[in-house]
Amino acid sequence: MLTLFHHPLFATCRFIRLVFGEYGEEIALIEEKPWTRRKEFLALNPAGTLPVLLAEGDVPIVGAMTIAEYLDETRGVLKRDRRLFAEDPMDRAEIRRLVDWYLTKTESEVSRHLVRERVLKPLMPEALGGGSPDSGAIRAARSNIRQHMKYTNWLAGTRHWLAGARITYADLAAAASISVLDYLGEVDWRDHPAAREWYTRVKSRPSFRPLLSDRVRGLSPVSHYADLDF
Amino acid sequence: MLTLFHHPLFATCRFIRLVFGEYGEEIALIEEKPWTRRKEFLALNPAGTLPVLLAEGDVPIVGAMTIAEYLDETRGVLKRDRRLFAEDPMDRAEIRRLVDWYLTKTESEVSRHLVRERVLKPLMPEALGGGSPDSGAIRAARSNIRQHMKYTNWLAGTRHWLAGARITYADLAAAASISVLDYLGEVDWRDHPAAREWYTRVKSRPSFRPLLSDRVRGLSPVSHYADLDF
């Protein structure tokens, strides 16, 4: 069984857990607090970022998209119509664009700030950056959410799955990203019916179940978080 | 001929120009100022980021690594020992890790800030974020450079090319990133002899020539920038 170093509320880590879930492969999870800069973890990934997969032979594979590409090359290609990636280079580029949108753009404009201010800072020692949440950073992140939900709503209303006719990495990355915001009660679903219908579909998949039972210390999810008919 | 929307001092764009150069394929360049949020450009890439490649059939391919993957799938696989990527999934993961290091980590910790403060802000209208450079941001970025040069020096001293025995995307991404800092005179080469020897090797390749004649308005490169024996 392979091992994933992860944090339960990082979208990048949730994305990889979903990929393993879809492929029906169990993994061992180790929760890492990257801000502690643990020596043994930095030896695996000098960048100190999550996720890190210990792959075959305990070789560390670093970063969400790099792990996803590795899993496609070593698993996906054998999955036929259950493959989460496309065959055609243009279709692959579109899937990669969307994964990058949710795991880099949404992350840097919205999720990273909300998770840091609302989840991590209250738990972190002051010397490592802990303390009271910065309400300005929370406000800025919240004002960006709408744009990302609007785009998701547009994609979900235009295509059956976000990158086309089949479920792909794009859906798993987007759902991973949005699920973190949903845990925090930051998503206003009323204005985005197509996104809501699509998210319900992803959320109902067996691969999603472990994410719906994730809990972080000091902060329970909103009441509808694990509800499949919200 | 394909078209690349780029900015001459963005490492992500330089990386793609190097890839085309190595494969001996000419491209048309269109310089884009993404902060103007030009409507026609946003239609190609709603994220408003660079680089964007207009590929076959004028389909936009968005983002440096996504373009690099596309070029590998449509060109690289045919290049045999001139391919800039590896065959083995683990080797591919290591190349992707390093590309991400230089184009995401170095970018967000160093290059983005120095380019914004020293190159773009003096040229940008105040309404779009222009104005005097923020000396605090410059200082913070500068204090991060050393770590990236130290890591590059370690890689270059341990391996012949940064990801192993052959030149790959990892070298082109790293050299693209460092070349921007070198243009700005921000690299102290004396302390990093292995990185210097490696960079001289990359810089001497024909694919690098167009980058060495790049100039941005209002800011000439340091005197050794285009010198192959610096």
Automatic annotation (TrEMBL), chains A, B:
Chain ranges of the GST N-terminal domain: 1-79
GO molecular function, one term: glutathione transferase activity
Taxonomic superkingdom: Bacteria
Cross-referenced Pfam families: GST_C, GST_N_2
UniProt-listed InterPro entries: Glutathione-S-Trfase_C-like, Glutathione-S-Trfase_C_sf, Glutathione_S-Trfase, Glutathione_S-Trfase_N, GST_C, Thioredoxin-like_sf
Known partners and oligomeric status: Homodimer.
PANTHER family xref list: GLUTATHIONE S TRANSFERASE D10, ISOFORM A-RELATED (PTHR43969)
TM region(s), chain numbering: none
Domain GST C-terminal: 88-222
Listed GO biological process terms: glutathione metabolic process
Protein name per the record: Glutathione S-transferase family protein
